[in-house]
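>> Question from a student workshop board

For tomorrow's exercise we were told to take the sequence and the ligand below, predict the bound structure, and bring the output to class. My setup keeps failing. Could a helper post the expected result so I can at least see what it should look like? The ligand is magnesium ion.
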Amino acid sequence: MKPGIWLRVMKGRMMVRIWSQFGEYLWIISNIGFPLLTSLSFALLYSSVGLKSFTGFAVLGGIMVSFWGNVIWSMASQFNWDKQEGLFEIYLVSPAPMSAILIGMSLGGIIGTAPSAVLVGISGYLLFRPEFSVSSVPALILTFVLTLASIYALGMMLSSLYLAYGREAETLNEVIQEPISMLSGVYFPSTGSLSPFPVAVQVLASLIPLTVGMDALRKVLFFSGDNSSVALNEFTLLVMAVILLLLSLRILKILEEKGRRDGTLTVKIS
Amino acid sequence: MNFLRYIASSMRIGIYHDLSWTNPMLSIMLRAVYPYSSIMTSCLIFTVGSKAASKFTDVGLLYVMIGAFLYMHFASYAWVPTLAIGEGKNLFVFQYIIITKASSKFYLAGRTFSSFVVSILTATIGFILSYITMGSIVGHFPQLSLGPYSVVSIFAISLLNIPASLGLGYILASYALYASKFEWALPAYIAGMIMILSGALFPVTLLPYPVSFVAQYIPFTEFIRAARDVLLYSNMSDFLLSITTGFAGGLILLLIGYFVYEYSEEKARKVGALDRRLA
Amino acid sequence: MARNLKLVAEKITREFEVKGGRITALYNVNLSAWEGEVLGVLGPNGAGKTTLIRILSTLLLPTSGSAKVMGFDVVKEPEKVREVINMASGAERSGYDFISARKNLWFFSQLYGIPGDEANKRIEELAEELSFKEYLDSKFYSLSTGYRQRVTIARAFINRPSVVFLDEPTIGLDVMTAMSIREFLKRKARDERITILLATHNMPEVEAICNRVAIIDKGRIIAEGTPEALKNTLTLCAYAIEIKPIPVNLGFLESVEGIKGYTMKADSQRGTATLQVVLEDEELLETVLFFLSKNGIRVLNTWRKEPTLEEVFVSYVGRGFGERESES
Ligand SMILES: Nc1ncnc2c1ncn2[C@@H]1O[C@H](COP(=O)(O)OP(=O)(O)OP(=O)(O)O)[C@@H](O)[C@H]1O
Ligand SMILES: [Mg+2]
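>> Workshop helper replied:
Here is what the output should look like for this input. Compare the format with yours to find the bug.
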């Protein structure tokens, strides 16, 4: 592989995503609806039981749900969509490394989602003034970055997996989005001492990167968390991200080989 | 009575559309996952919050559970006209519906009715499963006044809500008539607005003044209140009042929706937004 | 391998498992193309053209046989092949809808790691050559079919490939647009020594730009050579016969000895049809005319035809493209 091609492909894929999102300034309005309104309702639900101090969970949830929605709707279903449009085979017949395409797609998605996530955060903050206490800003940033890395890596894995399923992928997407965000405690602590779940469910939930990330984010944002347990979360997130990335590259390779054998790499046009 | 046949055939398409993921039984179960998780999320937030504030009560939990159940149900078929148009344009079929002599309003009504059927099933499954799951999480099953009578009442509530959801559906579909983008984002707004304004999770009085006043009188709020009267408070007189005003409000909403839609169909024809340009 | 031989396919066979058995999409296909050559692969629908391109462009494995592009094996070294090829299909017109043609092309150039300035220069050049400069900054979805197709063709040349595979690149385009795309392809092959493999079922297209053509039918190459040579080997004579009414069945012609093949185009408005026959000997025309009138068909007009590739096809296969396509 020529040096430099990896970076160029990555940047190329990232820019495409950013352009298609920012080319339409209305995009942000459409992106923000679900996370903003649900996090508002849940913040109100927390205050209705007289717990102002938890409204921050709901606001943080709204921010992270913006990214999670992007993972589900723009990452996971992307390759399938690319394939329908005949774009996937263009990737394949080029020398572009798949890892660069996947990572470029993720970075583009993160940058494209950031404005709406920020808006959700700001609106939530202005409306509810949730209390938070951050002991270490670098820890917060690192946790946030690793959380994004691991959930986007999950998106990559799903994207590769869905290629095998074709159109049914959308169905699966719709089916998993809500239960995953419930189990992973986007809006409430689903693991640890505050969790309403029995231990077995908590363990199961901890297999989802989003759970580990949300838990860590709440620790550093609201509980000026004890550093060793946050470090454990961070390490777990890193491992998850790497494994998921490698897994999706592996799946893509297998699918490509299988597709070349069976003739399923292209949607047959004629 | 041609339009009845037309609505019926649109319903068939709708049912086919909604349940053709795999076999119908599995499709229903898969579609119930969303309402189930959504009801559960609200219940869990309530549980975590109220336990931390030492304010957990069974009534409070059921209050949230019933609200989340109905808002899910009401919203999920109100957004169907929007989806049907968006998807129809994408697949290049909507223009063929428009050019038939029957109005596309009947098509949208048919699709809405079929989604109502699917939604009442899936939301109910979601509710029952949530009740069971929450019961095992909190360690006991909160007392619901269940009986043939209350089941019939809940069913009546959901039937009487149809005009309201369809009316809202028409209003939102009017946007989708013009749009080639973002119409898919509307459902999220619909669900979110209904969630906040219908008092599904908390009393609407918690909202700031002018909003809380309006919210009290929207049909969805009335129906959710009525459902709580039946299942939670066994309060018959309030129940009847709520469903009557809710139904009347729904009819008004339907009338408005009908005319808004008719008007925007005309407009969309002028701007040429009824079909997606073919290459 | 000769130095300037860019593409060699040997005994490529490809079968597909389908419901109720297997079908052979390609059978023992041998093919080669030289530097700077436009090689046409001409055949009716379902002949196996797309399958061949998918194999040569590394998207599909052959069931047996092998192929090399620029000396690299398409089965075993797909990564190396991908460095030097590109492809486009007229049926797809792929691009990201909500960004401009320029940005789309820039993205595709990045898949080949082309430095920014160089990429921009090439985009300008290609847009100039394919005359879509004024649409470079229009969003992809807003382009008309013809311009979208020009962008797609430009994409296939963005990495200065050594070998380009084009699958029906002018399908669905008007005559003028198709012509300008053909001119472009011709120039690219001649001036930049790019090898182009062009799959099509459009015979005038082949005659216009292909240096050589392989005629394919039911997965087999049935003839190969320059269009001229193919037509010249046709020592047979071709006639066009205008007849009325449009016959329902011409099966009786098959029993006539010496008829190599025939094809018919009906003009249902006028109620007439033009029957083309390829005969071993011109004497046989009399026999054909006799059989026609015996079956109640009136002959309005008869003339001798300059052989075209259609006659070549008819003489090998016995039937025309049209009939072949309606068979399947
Ligand atoms: N993935 C596949 N699975 C099963 N059969 C296939 C597949 N791809 C191609 N075929 C079959 O192989 C044969 C050749 O198809 P191919 O698409 O290569 O023809 P073509 O010459 O490109 O035709 P057209 O002019 O219609 O594009 C056809 O009978 C087709 O149905
Ligand atoms: Mg083809």
